[in-house]
């Protein structure tokens, strides 16, 4: 029996995964390279009491930047990324996802490679270049939402959106490879390596991807017709001059989705920022000492994102459950269960393995976000999924500043389990509460503001 040829949209889905990996390559190579740039003299005390300086590895010129300057450099990408997300949707809906991704990735690689020329005693020039990379990179996730809206049939969006979690692979692979490159060739090659990856990526993107199935020269006519029939006229690959911001601002389903995504990002930022500090300070647990275990939570979220995406698509394709039941049912898993699990950190004592297990469980449950908050924008208005996602990310990313501030304030007097209870109670309640808001008031119905006039077509892609 001959093997069944996968539909062409499968290759587009894989490019979505590759895109998120490349996007995170630009984010996560930098902290590793920065270690080799900053001058941190070390000393060693001999048996006779003599203190000698320990030479640092020669990875290239080093600079004596202060700790707070180093922290600003690490966070610089996200200053730009937050605002890039906000403009990403309208940009993509005007120029199309094909050219938006092609251009933004090239600019990110060019700025990153040229950044080695501005590494100097003053940290400001490098800070500026990292903000610019974040600003340009911020348009990419909204662009992918727009692309998914055009390529994925409604009952297959779970698997497509799960491909957004390719960022986990991008993080793990990038940080491993960057460490090897910097150790052998110097920190400047950590920057240059992004250019090599970009060349491979842009070549594949230019060949495989198009703004829509109708504009692809490789997608079969039968598949184009099938995707079009599945969309039932809800998706139009035409240029949008102005997103319906006023209608969106007064749309209850979209406002509920913003709350829903805010809870999702609150939980993620809490796990990525303050939970490691809790485990180190209170549980006396060093994440670096367990090696691979430190990446288990994120890897678990990646794997179960595909599991939940496949289950949801199966339920929708077989019409076992209506879409509203699937979205709100999985909201219990993606938001409510992680919130409940966070409360369990308060009763585990100093059991290290149980702390790791709970952390993994939170991320396993949150893998269901691929069929809840990460895909609901496609339900409401696939024509403006990019704009929706950009606004959601802009507001949701604020939790990245709020969570650490709350943790610092709550543990100011004493850094113990009792004071950390405040942090976990707030986070668990908010995580679960945002999920409950969606369960009560969320919608999966196409909104009236999804419609847009058929003006001129989006810019023609290279593969039309």
Automatic annotation (TrEMBL):
Q: What keywords are assigned to this protein?
A: Membrane, Symport, Transmembrane, Transmembrane helix, Transport
Stored Gene3D superfamilies: MFS general substrate transporter like domains (1.20.1250.20)
Instruction: Classify the protein's membrane topology as the record does.
Output: Multi-pass membrane protein
Please indicate if the UniProt record lists Transmembrane as a keyword. yes
**Which Pfam families does the record cross-reference, listed alphabetically?**
MFS_1 (PF07690)
Could you tell me where this protein is found in the cell?
Membrane
InterPro entries listed in its UniProt record: MFS, MFS_dom, MFS_Na/Anion_cotransporter, MFS_trans_sf
Q: Which GO terms describe its molecular function?
A: symporter activity
Entry superkingdom: Eukaryota
| All residue ranges annotated as the Major facilitator superfamily (MFS) profile domain in the record | 17-446
Question: What GO biological process terms does the UniProt entry carry, in alphabetical order?
Answer: monoatomic anion transport
Transmembrane domains' residue ranges: 12-38, 98-120, 160-183, 189-210, 249-272, 292-316, 328-348, 354-377, 389-408, 420-442
Q: Which GO terms describe its cellular component?
A: membrane
Reply yes or no: does the keyword Membrane apply. Answer: yes
Q: Give the protein's recorded name.
A: Major facilitator superfamily (MFS) profile domain-containing protein
**Whose protein is this, by species?**
Henosepilachna vigintioctopunctata
Q: What is the lineage of its organism?
A: Eukaryota, Metazoa, Ecdysozoa, Arthropoda, Hexapoda
